[in-house]
Amino acid sequence: MSPIHLSKRLAHLAAFNNDGRRIADIGTDHAYIPIYLAQTGQIDYAVASDIGAGPVAIAKANIHAAGLDDQIVVRQADGLAGLTAEDALDTIYIAGMGGQLIEEILEAGRSRLDGTETLILGPNRDAEALRRYLAAHEFSILDEDLVEDAGHVYPLMSVGQTRPQVPYTEADLMLGPVLRRKRTALFLNQLEIEIDKTEAVLRGLGNATQVPEAKMADEQARLDLLKEEFHAERK
């Protein structure tokens, strides 16, 4: 049987698995990632977890149809609450949700992590805020990428639970330390979009009757950093 077809975003997420043999997929929805990784022989065991009864039922049906009931366990749970030490996981996916929700899941479930698991995170918004949370809690960003799918650009992160060797700069937190090194065409395109957005914010603030000076200064500093990053690529 051929592996299930994954969207471009899910395929990139699946490819972020770096030799993990025992994984969890939090917010699994249809359980496509664990099914694909099992079908392609990349994992031995998976926990597919979701807080909703509907997604859990769909995941169970998809796993059964793929003949993987003995390899993928489905649990209805909030965040990491359904994981146990006996799962002996080496990789945990948390994707398809906002960065703030990923933060909340990590914060609530940190006691369920033993510090050795690689976290593969796929925020569909608020990636900058998520990076700031990770840095504040001494997680290290091991790898990053951007993928464009159905007109939306998604950031992907592989995260370790050890302090980064070099503290992240403001540009790293805003734009992504690994993304800055990779300098892909998609990264530069997103950088231009952020410059345009920030310039629009500043124009709006300039037309307002009362604007706190600190707000103007923050937005101007952000614009200066974005432009510096953009032009540094072309030196």
Automatic annotation (TrEMBL):
Q: Please provide the record's keywords in A-Z order.
A: Methyltransferase, Transferase
Among the record's GO biological process terms, what is one?
methylation
UniProt xrefs under SUPFAM superfamilies: S-adenosyl-L-methionine-dependent methyltransferases
According to the UniProt entry, its GO molecular function terms are:
tRNA (adenine(22)-N1)-methyltransferase activity
Record protein name field: SAM-dependent methyltransferase
Q: Which Gene3D superfamilies match?
A: 1.10.287.1890, Vaccinia Virus protein VP39 (3.40.50.150)
**Signal peptide stretch:** none
